[in-house]
Amino acid sequence: MEQKNYHNSIAVAVSPATAFVGIANVGGWWAKSFQGRATTVGDKFTVQFGETKVDFEITESVPEKRIVWHVTDCFLPWLNNKTEWTGTNVAWDISSKEGIAHIDMTHVGLFPGVECYKACEDGWNGHITGSLQDLLTKGAGQPQ
User: Is residue 79 situated within a structural domain?
Assistant: First the structure.
């Protein structure tokens, strides 16, 4: 059986450059507790939500087109496997057509059958289609 990684996409009337900068502004749309940088290869950052903590490293970065966050460590206290995200990748692909930036996010390694899938799917959906989209279109997201 093929694994179908979590995927979501949005289309917003911004430039690819604005979309790239917005995605990298992790503290502006995802996590109020954000430390580090999330722009260029080798950058490292951490997000924290209470006891939940995830460490990332940027492994690919092509401005205005693609950025990949690699999970180097995590602590997900509500799961049996508290490090379930470790080793997964969050890939952001940006394209543009007629003044609309199309942002595709795939969390490689987060697929139906892993313990976190449903809760993490719900979380990502809200952050991407709500907070990130608001950051890009209204200038302010709702990081948690």
Answer: yes
Asked if the structure places residue 1 within a domain, the reply is no
CB atoms within 10 A of CB 42: 10
Q: Residue 52: CB partners within 8 Å, gap ≥ 6?
A: 74, 75, 76, 77, 78
The pLDDT tens digits of the residues spanning 34-80 come to 999 999 999 999 999 999 999 999 999 999 999 999 999 999 999 99
Number of domains, the chain: 1
- Rounded Cα–Cα distance for residues 68 and 61 (Å): 7
Structure tokens at 118: 């449903």
CATH of the domain at 40: 3.30.530.20
